[in-house]
Known about the structure:
Blueprint: H1 7-10, H2 23-32, E1 44-48, H3 54-62, E2 67-72, H4 75-88, E3 93-97, E4 109-114, H5 123-136, E5 137-148, H6 152-167, H7 173-188, H8 195-210, H9 213-220, H10 230-239, E6 242-247, H11 260-266, H12 271-282, E7 286-293, E8 311-313, E9 317-318, E10 331-334, E11 340-343, H13 346-358, E12 363-364, H14 365-373, H15 384-400, E13 404-406, H16 424-431, E14 436-438, E15 444-446, H17 450-458, H18 465-477, H19 490-503
Parallel strand pairs: 1-2, 1-4, 2-3, 4-5
Antiparallel strand pairs: 5-7, 6-7, 8-12, 8-13, 9-10, 10-11, 14-15
Helix pairs in contact: 6-7, 6-8, 7-8, 7-9, 13-14, 18-19
Amino acid sequence: MTCEATAYDDFPYPGSVYPQTHPNRLAVIAELLGMTPAPPDRCRVLEVGCGDGINLIALGCIFPGIQAEGFDLASSAIAHGQRLIDELGLTNVRLRPADLMEYEPEGLFDYIIAHGFFSWVPEPVRERLLRLCRQALAPQGVAFVSYNALPGFHARRLVRDALKFHAGHFPDPRTKIQQAQAMLSLLLSRRSDDEYAALLRKEAEWIVNRDNQAVLLHDDLAEINEPYYVRDFVAKAQQHGLQFLAEADFHEMNESVFPESIARLLRPMNLLLREQYSDFLKCRRFRQTLLARSEVELERDIPPHRVKTKLIAAQVSPRSESVCLDPGVVEGFVGRNGAAMQVDHPLTKAALLILRDHWPRPLTFDELVAAAADCLPPHLAPDEASQEGLAEILLHGFRSGLIELHKVRGDWSIVPSERPAASPLVRSMLRRGDYQVASLRPANVRVDSPFKRQLLLLLDGRLDRPALARELADRLERRELSLPPDAPPLPQLIETALNQAAREALLR
Ligand SMILES: C[S@@+](CC[C@H](N)C(=O)[O-])C[C@H]1O[C@@H](n2cnc3c(N)ncnc32)[C@H](O)[C@@H]1O
C-alpha cells in the first residue's frame, strides 16, 4: 500500500527507541499483576504509527525470536526504516505504509504499542486504535497507549495557543517553525514576576530546551493535540472491552511520593480515582497507560515473591562513602530521578552495592543473593527469611523507581572482549549519519565524539586493541580524525571509550 504524503513525509519525526514500550517492561508489570504474558523474546509485537520503525528494529535486533510488525501513514519514514532492515538482514521485523483506518491485523499480538499517536490523530482514528487493541490483543496481551494528560496539558496549552496563533497559518513548515521560534523568544522576553509570566517561561523554556524542530512542528503546532483526563481515557478504553492495567512508568503510581497526610487520603480510593487525584495533585501532562482485555483477572496486591522470577538492575549509589552492612544500621541509597530508599536490612544493603557494581547488567534473584552473600560475614549469611525480606524491599524499590525489573536478558556484554564488536544496528546507524543510536538495552545513546564514532565503526569483532590503535593512528596521520593536543595516549583513549561503550550497551 502507498499512502498519500503527509506532513510527516515532508518533515520527518525523529525516530527513537522507547524503553517504556519494550515487551520486557510490559511483561514484568503484567506478571507482577497476576497475568501470564508472552515471553518478551518470543512474542508478536505490533506498533501503530511506528514512524521509521526504529523502536521495533532495535527490539528485533535484541530478540531474534520475536515477530514485529509496524505500520505508519508516512511512506518516507517506513522506507527509511526498511533500508536499515535490509542492511541488517533482519527477517523478524516487517514495516509497511498503511492507514490505521484501513489496516486489518493478521492474527493476534502479544503486545500492541501506540506511542505519541493517540492525542495527535482525529477522534475516529482514536476509536479505531482502541477497537484494534481489543480485536488484535492476545488473551494475556498488553497494549501501550501514550497521550497528553489533563490537567497538566492546560499549562502546555498556554504556549501552544500562542504559537499556533502566531505561526499556525504559515503553509511552509520551515517558516512555521521559524515563526514559532520567534514567538517563543517573545514569550521568554517577558521579564515579569507574576504567576502568568513564571508559567509561560517554564513552558516555553521546556520547548526551547528540547531543541527539536520536527517535534515543535508535529507536537506543539499540530492541528490536533487532544489531552485526556485519565478517567475519561480509561472510560473510553472500557467501552472497547479494555481495562486499565498500570502505567508503563510503574513508579508513577506510587502514592508515597506525596506527604503522608495526602497519601493517607489517596490509599483507600479505588485505583482509578487515586490515579485521577494524583494527576490533579501532580499537574500531570503525559501518560503512558497499559491496557489489558477487560475479562483478565488482575491481582492488585502484588506478592513480593514474584520479584524472585525477574532480573534485577539498579543504577544506585549509597549516600555514605562506606556502607555499614550490620543489622539495624540505616543506610540511604539514591537512584535516578531522585528515587531514594532507606535500608537497614543487611542482605538488601549488600545487594544494592552489587547492583551498583553490575549496572546496567541485570542479575537473577539467585545471582544477586549469591553475590551479596559473599559480602556478608558468616553470621549474616542469607536464610529464607532474609531472602523474603530482600524480595519485599526490591518490590518496594521497583514501586518507587529505584529498581528495574526485567523478564529476559539481552545478549550484550559490560566488559569489552579481546576483539570487541559493536552491535550491527549501532554501526549501521552511525554509517547513515545518526548521532543518536539505539543500544542493546535498548535505550537512546548520543554518540557525538568523532573519535568514538570512528572507533565504534571499526568494531566488527575482527580487530584487537593493537590493530584498532594502528588503524586510528593512520587516520590521525591522514588528518581524517583529530584529537586535542593534551589527549591521553591512543591505547588509553581506546580503552576508556570501549569501557564506556560497554556500559552503554553498545557492544555485543
Ligand atoms: C507524533 S508521530 C509519533 C511517531 C512514533 N510513534 C514516536 O512516538 O516517535 C505520529 C505518527 O503517527 C502516524 N500516523 C498518523 N495518523 C496515522 C494513521 N491514520 N495511520 C497510521 N499512522 C498514522 C504519523 O505518520 C506519525 O509517524
